[in-house]
Specification:
By secondary structure, the protein is α/β, with parallel strands linked by helices. 35% of the residues lie in helices and 25% in strands. It contains 10 helices and 16 strands. It has an 8-stranded mixed β-sheet, with helices on both faces. Strands 10-12-8-13 form a 4-stranded antiparallel β-sheet, covered by helices on one side. Strands 7-14 form a two-stranded antiparallel ribbon. The radius of gyration is 24 Å and the shape is elongated.
Length: 392
């Protein structure tokens, strides 16, 4: 059976692809700078005899054709970029690039997709359709590599009927997967606010428009705005994460800058909230005697897992892994540019367990000590191949 064959190949290629992951981990590249990573992916696909095209500068798209290639088209996606973090792990495959690290597991995602590509290539006489392999840049930075890949036609010629992606989950033990239907992760928009007013001596605030006080009022006001205008059953978060202004104890500054993030899981509420935030910012600051400019950098939409597709994928994952090893993913307010794909074609974004508490492998993503139990590599590449051929 094809399932047993995929499992055998995933096990047989375990060490090879652990080596690939360690190579990628040691050579991370920042968003939209993944030139060496893309070249490595192309070399691997070339070695497998898989045709590919470049897209969105550093993106790569390959095609593996099985029996009757036009009968069904499935896409598998991996992201390739690292983060601006200095790695603190003392491991042989530690990042060789100061200030850059695969701290979100994109090296794992790329490795699993390459492994799935090899498995699919070797079993193509045993499954129907075409599998599109999407290696995308820039998941960590706006506007999101997914949006650029879509702009350049990644979902066309041929158009997939469904798309899958996995993401490492250090809180989930290796050998386990988790799925969730419907809303999975939030949209993410960046807020940039500048308050400009009359500065002056801190001992004479009546002669100034106190920009620090105004900024403080605005932070509280925006929290109230979101809390009192959003349905409490509709997840949404606004966080002001930076206030910059002034540099001494006795001067009220003429300018204060604020930055923050706004998250939502409803596109209608998301853009209504943008208008409310703009209006509140400008009018409150004006009422207190200063001026405000605001820029909202619109980021990724929320990730929407198609319910029918996710149910089918979970069932096949249970067949592959055993039902006891498949869990339900928790709802998260983090963001992922897979959301772009999921609003165009039915998508399923699921989690790959990479933790091993017994070995002390449990650090969260986006930290300098993030790492994985590399036994997860065989699981990831196998399940990607299996879902690609089994879910109809």
């Amino acid at each position: 059976m094809i399932r047993e064959r995929i499992q055998e190949l995933a096990s047989a290629y375990r060490e090879e692809f652990i080596g690939i992951r360690e190579h990628l981990h040691a050579h991370p590249e920042l968003s939209y700078q993944e030139y060496e990573t893309a070249a490595f992916v192309k070399a691997q696909l070339t070695g497998l005899g898989i045709p590919f095209v470049s897209m969105a500068d550093t993106g790569v798209v390959g095609l593996v054709e099985g029996v009757d290639p036009g009968s069904r088209v499935v896409a598998l996606r991996a992201d390739m970029d690292g983060l601006p973090i200095t790695e603190a792990n003392d491991v042989p495959y530690r990042s060789t690039r100061s200030g850059v690290m695969h701290a979100c597991g994109h090296d794992v995602h790329t490795t699993c997709l390459l492994g799935a590509a090899k498995i699919l290539s070797e079993t193509k006489a045993d499954w129907k359709g075409t599998v599109k392999l999407i290696f995308q840049p820039g998941e960590e930075r706006n506007p999101g590599g997914a949006s650029l890949m879509i702009r350049d036609g990644v979902l066309d010629n041929p158009r997939p009927a469904k798309i899958f992606a996995l993401h490492v989950h250090p809180g989930l033990e290796t050998g386990r997967l988790s799925f969730r239907s419907g809303m999975v992760m939030a949209s993410a928009d960046e807020l940039y606010i500048t308050i400009t007013g009359k500065g002056g001596h801190a001992a004479a605030p009546h002669l100034t428009s106190d920009t620090i006080l105004i900024a403080s009022q605005l932070v509280v006001s925006l929290q109230q705005l979101i809390a009192r205008n959003n349905n409490p059953f509709n997840p949404s978060v606004l966080s002001i994460t930076s206030i910059q202004g002034g540099n001494t104890t006795n001067v009220i500054p003429t300018e204060v800058k604020l930055m923050g993030t706004f998250r939502a899981m409803d596109e209608g509420w998301r853009f209504r909230a943008h208008e409310l935030i703009r209006k509140q910012t400008v009018e409150l600051v004006a009422a207190m005697g200063a001026e405000a400019t605001i820029h909202i950098d619109v980021g990724y939409p929320f990730v929407l897992n198609n319910e029918a597709l996710t149910a089918a994928a979970r069932l096949q994952a249970e067949t592959y892994m055993g039902a006891a090893n498949v869990e339900t993913t928790e709802l998260r307010m983090g963001a992922e540019d897979f959301g772009y794909y999921s609003h165009i074609v039915p998508g399923c974004f699921f989690r790959l367990g990479v933790g091993n508490r017994a070995r002390g492998i449990s650090a969260n993503v986006h930290t300098p000590v993030f790492d994985i139990d590399e036994n997860a590599i065989a699981v990831g590449m196998g399940i990607m191949a299996w879902l690609a051929v089994s879910v109809d």
